[in-house]
Write a structure and sequence with these properties.
Elements (H helix, E strand, L loop, with lengths): L2 H8 L21 H13 L5 H8 L4 H15 L3 H8 L2 H10 L3 H12 L7 H10 L2 H13 L12 H10 L11 H13 L9 H10 L2 H11 L7 H8 L2 H30 L5 H11 L4 H12 L3 H8 L2 H11 L4
Helix pairs in contact: 1-8, 1-10, 1-15, 2-3, 2-4, 3-19, 6-16, 6-19, 7-8, 7-9, 7-16, 8-15, 11-13, 14-15, 15-16, 15-17, 15-18, 18-19
GO molecular function, one term: calcium-dependent phospholipid binding
InterPro entries: Annexin (IPR001464), Annexin_repeat (IPR018502), Annexin_repeat_CS (IPR018252), Annexin_sf (IPR037104)
Protein name: Annexin
């Protein structure tokens, strides 16, 4: 089984509809014509008024930004995205253009970028495909179809089989009834398929992790400790290597606490040598209307300082301003 197959198979991980904890919420008393006028003036200003562009677009939802873009086009007789592209540059341009896409469109463009050209950015693929809920994955797939990508970049070797399987497999919905017998059975099966034997029955691991509901799996991983001397993450590190290991670890981390997973990714990206802007941008842009508020909360609990403070220490200029605008004030 090749690398892309493994990653896509793990993307069968529908995690249901998660509650939302956005930092970017609909602006009250929203006036798209007024905002469009402000954006037009900011673009025409000598040297470009980046601050106004940041102030407006980081405080509007994607749906509102679309209305601003329509109002801008009526007013200026030109496309707002093209105008922004011409006026901005560098990291600020990347973030602002990302904000002009829906979350699903942004994720789809990140996936497309990760598999374009020579080689594949497996890290990006694993992060997106293994951390998104089923609803989010369905939306991403729709975007691919609308953009006529039709996931053709994924249809390589035996990946076609995986796409067919994706249509048939769906994670079980959470149930109000706790099936302790099934929890015990799955925990035992994970142990029997890994630590107990020589080698690893990967198919069993994938089957359980891709078909069970998230609340069920959370209890399974707790029960697993009664069979194995290692927890699930330690077992994964011992049993499998490479992209398969990374994919399983992302899955388990997201099942246990998705927002903590993103908080750790942000901390690692900002504090690594030569801050990895691409990762920081991707997480903050893609999660600002989903769960960035909760990510900020997990970040502070885990690292003892706010995400906003870390952004101020490790970024600068307009890039820093736009990230802080999307994170909102410290809670």
């Amino acid at each position: 089984v090749n690398k892309k197959t493994v990653i896509l198979l793990l993307a069968l991980t529908s995690q249901g509809q998660d509650p939302l904890f956005p930092t970017v919420v609909p602006a009250v008393d929203f006036d798209p014509d007024k905002d469009a006028a402000r954006i037009e003036t900011a673009i025409k200003t000598k040297g470009v008024d980046e601050q106004t562009i940041i102030d407006v677009l980081t405080k509007r939802t994607y749906a509102q930004r679309r209305e601003i873009a329509f109002a801008y086009e009526r007013r200026a007789k030109k496309d707002m995205i093209s105008a922004l592209k011409g006026a901005l540059s560098g990291s600020l341009e990347t973030v602002i253009l990302g904000l002009m896409k829906s979350t699903a469109q942004f994720d789809a463009s990140e996936i497309k970028g990760s598999i374009k050209g020579l080689g594949t950015d497996e890290e990006t693929l694993i992060e997106i495909l293994c951390s998104r809920s089923n609803d989010e994955l369905v939306e991403i797939k729709k975007v691919y179809k609308e953009c006529k990508y039709t996931l053709k970049y994924f249809v390589i070797s035996c990946v076609k089989f995986i796409l067919q399987l994706r249509l048939l497999t769906k994670r079980a919905e959470p149930s109000s009834i706790t099936d302790y017998e099934k929890i015990d059975e799955d925990a035992r099966a994970l142990y029997d398929a890994g630590i107990k034997i020589k080698g690893t029955d990967v198919a069993t691991w994938i089957s359980i992790m891709s078909e069970r509901s998230v609340p069920h799996l959370q209890k399974v991983f707790q029960k697993y400790k009664s069979y194995s001397p290692y927890d699930m993450q330690e077992s994964i590190v011992k049993e499998v290597k490479g992209d398969l290991q990374r994919s399983f670890l992302v899955l388990v981390q997201c099942f246990e606490n998705k927002q903590l997973y993103f908080a750790k990714r942000l901390n690692e990206a900002m504090k690594s040598k030569g801050a990895k802007e691409k990762i920081v941008t991707r997480i903050i842009v893609s999660r600002c209307e989903v769960d960035l508020k909760k990510i900020c909360s997990e970040y502070k609990s885990c690292f003892g300082q706010s995400l906003q403070q870390t952004i101020m220490e490790h970024t600068k200029g307009d890039y820093q301003k736009v990230l802080l605008g999307l994170c909102g004030p410290e809670q």
